[in-house]
Design brief:
Elements (H helix, E strand, L loop, with lengths): L19 E5 H15 L5 E5 L6 H9 L4 E4 L2 H9 L4 E7 L3 H10 L4 E6 L2 H14 L3 E6 L13 H11 L4 E7 L11 H23 L7 E4 L5 H5 L6 E2 L9 H4 L14 E12 L2 E4 L14 E2 L6 E5 L4 E4 L11 E5 L3 H5 L4 E6 L2 E7 L8
Helix pairs in contact: 3-4, 4-5, 6-7
Amino acid sequence: MSPWKAAQPGDRLSAVDTPALMLDLDAFERNLQRMADALKGSNVRLRAHAKSHKCPEIALRQVAAGAVGICCQKVSEAAVFVDAGIGDVLITNQVMGEAKLRRLAPLARRSRVGVLVDDPQQVRALAAAAQAGDVTLDVYVEVDVGANRCGVAPGAGAAQLARQIASSAGLRFAGLQCYHGPAQHLRSAQERMMAIAQASEAARVSRQAIVDCGIAVGRITGGGTGTFVHERDSGIFNEIQAGSYVFMDRDYGDNRAGAGDIAFEHALFVRTAVMSRPTAERAVVDAGLKASSVDSGMPRVWQRPELRYVKAADEHGVLATTDAAAVSLGDVLMLVPGHCDPTVNLYDDLVCFRGDRVEALWPIAARGALL
């Protein structure tokens, strides 16, 4: 943790130290409203994914804008959001291990808490933890709808797990988790539409297999920023889990929009300064790997097409330019991160600005919550 903050409320942007994680509040608020408008009149609700921001202030604003609650990925993340007053939290992950289960159960005394399973052993472990803690946990069966990560195959395997959950004391069968992560980043609108059509069919087959066992399927949840319009319109999904829409990163920005897609704005930036100008073709900024994740590719220099971020070291970012006069020592630039989720996890605070002024610092309270 840094011994000082990059900025304080009331500072002008010119006074913000670098590197700093910046949130454009005007763009952020427009993104919140666009998502609310996109779901208005449908029977599909938003459960906003908080792994993108790890920030209770943002989660509370998402709920105020209509979200029923949030998703997160870890028990420790869930604890942060329950402590902040979020009343409905779904851990979109499997939870294994005695220590994690021991900490999971008490959260359900203060919030409605859900968790995923894709194996009978997980169901047994959750049931034991819930009974020991005298709580009830919502449990969703995760179906592999094409991501080839976690999840049971569609159909009979999902029904078997649903029966086990429904018959287990301390557990409540809540529905199906049908999230297709890789589909979010398929570049063409046609590819994304086809992937979610296949995911919807896998969800439908699984729902029918469970209904045939006499068990109601109350919730089919999934979908992300890149595909949620297809889940919304599928007639199968009744909850979406978009998260990155509040920020938008370079990778999402590279998707080619379809006719019905919603245009969210870039609201998250890394503020960086030129610290070295060794040649006419190269400049070096103070935002490297420890300031912006590059797992989804390099950041983009915001509104400066003549500059390309081409290489990252721990503390250095190398820019290439064919314009010798493009940047000078001390110049400040804004970067659009390649991937917002791991970039946010590098910082203690979001520097929230409106116009030329810092309005607030929002703690990234679930930063490093990996347990």
